[in-house]
Amino acid sequence: MDKNRLVVEFGSDARNESVARVVVAAMMTRINPTLCEVEDVKTAVSEAVTNSIVHGYRSGTGVITVEVYIEDRTIYITVRDQGCGIENVDKAMEPMYTSVTDGSRSGMGFSFMEAFMDGLEVLSAPGEGTVVKMKKMIGNSQEMY
């Protein structure tokens, strides 16, 4: 196995969202990110995992896989589920769109992922689950201390 790659698999329990965030943040320490970069990535991972739990598995039982890979100063993250899938990915990525109609969701998950990461790709089809691929270049920040 490649020393710059980590794969974690866990159940679709909402409590595991925080585990995914911490695992990815720990992996990032290898490339000395700023606190702002860590928070950006943790937020994006949180949104992707929460989408798998709430939308992919409709808060039911399933497995979520998070894969993290580091190459040079870029972290690549893939969040995969085998849930119900997304019928229209373009529509789902529109700000304020949500498949949950009870008012409990803002529909900003993909928008946050796009805002905090340097790349986002969503692959999905009904009945085939969803794969969210994200990347973040570390060290491009102009953050002042």
From TrEMBL:
Keywords: ATP-binding, Kinase, Nucleotide-binding, Serine/threonine-protein kinase, Sporulation, Transferase
Domain Histidine kinase/HSP90-like ATPase: 36-140
Gene3D superfamilies per the UniProt record, alphabetical: Histidine kinase-like ATPase, C-terminal domain
Pfam families: HATPase_c_2
EC number of the protein: 2.7.11.1
GO BP, sorted A to Z: asexual sporulation; negative regulation of sporulation resulting in formation of a cellular spore; sporulation resulting in formation of a cellular spore
Gene Ontology terms, MF aspect: ATP binding; protein serine kinase activity; protein serine/threonine kinase activity; sigma factor antagonist activity
Protein task: Binds to sigma F and blocks its ability to form an RNA polymerase holoenzyme (E-sigma F). Phosphorylates SpoIIAA on a serine residue. This phosphorylation may enable SpoIIAA to act as an anti-anti-sigma factor that counteracts SpoIIAB and thus releases sigma F from inhibition.
HAMAP family: Anti_sigma_F (MF_00637)
Entries under NCBIfam families matching the protein: spIIAB
Family: Belongs to the anti-sigma-factor family.
Name under which the protein is recorded: Anti-sigma F factor
Gene expressing this chain: spoIIAB
